[in-house]
User: Fold this.
Amino acid sequence: MHPLAKALAAISLSLLFLSIFPNIFAQEVNNYNAVLRITAQVNVSGSLNIQKESEDAFLEELQVNLQYYPLNDDQHQVTSILGHSSPPSSIIKNNNFVFTWKKPRVDKFTYGISSNITSINNFPKIKERIFFPSKEIEEQFLLYDHETEFIDITGDIRAIANDIVTGETDYYTAVHNLAQWVTNNIEYNLSTLTAETVQKSSWVLANRIGVCDELTNLFISMARSVGIPARFVSGVVYTNLNNDFGSHGWAEVYFPGYGWVPFDVTFAQYGWVDPSHIRLAQTADSGEPAVSYSWRSRGISIEPEPISITTKVLEASGTIEPYATLRITPLATEVGLDSFVPIEAIASNPYQFYLPLQISFTKGPGFPDGFSRSVLLRPEETKRLYFIASTGNKFEDGFIYTSKLSAETSFGSTAESELVIRQDANTISLEEAREMVDALAEKENKLFLRNIDLSCLSDRPTYYVRETINVNCRVTNEGNTEIQNGKVCLFDECKPISLNIADEKNITFQTSLDDGRRLSIRVGNGETIRYAYVDVSIVSIPQVNISLQPESVSYYESLPLILNITSNTKVKNVQITLEDVGTFELREFGGSKQYEILVNGKDLPRDGIRAYATYEDVLGKQYNFEENIPIVVTDVPRYARALRAVRSLFT
Assistant:
């Protein structure tokens, strides 16, 4: 993923040439997001060959300067590290590992380090708001706020970055939004153009593709272009794409008063990285070499082999605190086939520090606009995010399906809900779902009206389809200023409201629905807003149907008669009586069901079977009906017809 650097001079060469080998790790995991601590063995090794270009070739001295090795920081502790080489060399560790051979008499050299490291799942807790743009950047960090060879800054990069942060006064939010833009708008693509050599940030922006190094380059360029210092980190990370460790690049952003904070735009980890991220180098530019070579010789050339980095997890232990609380709620609880359902996810941060989260659905029918979202929660903040789930249409007729929904945050908080899918329910199109989500997201971005209390209730929790729903709201001014020219709205219906100090008013809305959903009532004055929510369940009027198969039976036959019962929605206490055949009871039922009844053709009535049915809907309302189910008895002998005629005279 890194390029060969150019020759520095006739007798020196710099090289960055990595190859990723299969790695062995102690246990298979999906990711290390919620793991508290891992202990790992990290080995970095390389080799080079000497080529003699003349008969009197002679190597006086060879020196290898290895810049890649595990580093100590707030998240990582190197417990042991040793250099090794063959043939033996002098090894000096300063800022780098320096291997020196004096008058060697061999043609092949190997070198490297072996280390053990403990990595903790710990992220910087940013407690105070840092104003953006910041005027508190110390001089030593200004090295990381201008362009470099691969992390270039063009007019296009500067324009997009400025557009993203314009009007933002919170430093963390500005950095988070830049990182999120790169994750959402640049495709991770391991093509031949990006796999073998690093591309500049300007190339990545123009082509909208890249690998981890290049996504990170662009993010750093955008941050630096608006005065935010950032640097490139090289290392290894665990990925569940291959279930092993591989070379990786991410960024660190300088936060005044806190230091360097990690941002991985490839993994959407903003303000933290999981403990499988093991740092090996930190540089101003992504093209700086992992190893450099110098030598004094006559008639000698050097052919370096790729550097190998292998990582083995020795132990993974503990689970971190989940930090956030999470709830998920479908905004329509019952939908038809081929529906697209908006789902609201509510994440809350109870702590006195900023909390970066990724919310992902782990179970659900399908998510056409993506199953994962990132959000930054300020101290003690709650935010709502919106997803769209698709139901599909591969269901059998007459059945009612329940789809389980599960979501989790990057730190392990979980939430569950469910969605009912039935054939006769209303269908929500993708366009309608997106309009709902866009409207709700726009409301979420408005300022919160803190001095108004809004509480709403419906007169009961469950209604029939298109039945009138009464929603009663109480609005109270708890502040010390009057509220003028306000509006209270449900859907598109808005009612004016003005409130004196400590004033309280009641507002009533009437509406009707075809399916269950969460009603959103809002009060505001255009710039500020407050919400209340009412969950309403909708019950379809049940339609129970019964039929018999076959429709024709021979007088002489003894055969199973199939009783088919179907219902468009859930019903309970079902009792169906077939005259001269029997009674069938179901405590709860929805969809379709079959019973097999053994009958003799000679015992069946000639003019059909009389059926009586009683049942209740989920609200307890009782229904009943009776009908004659036609069935034809064939091959009836003359004596049976005569006997039937005689009996009819006495009944």
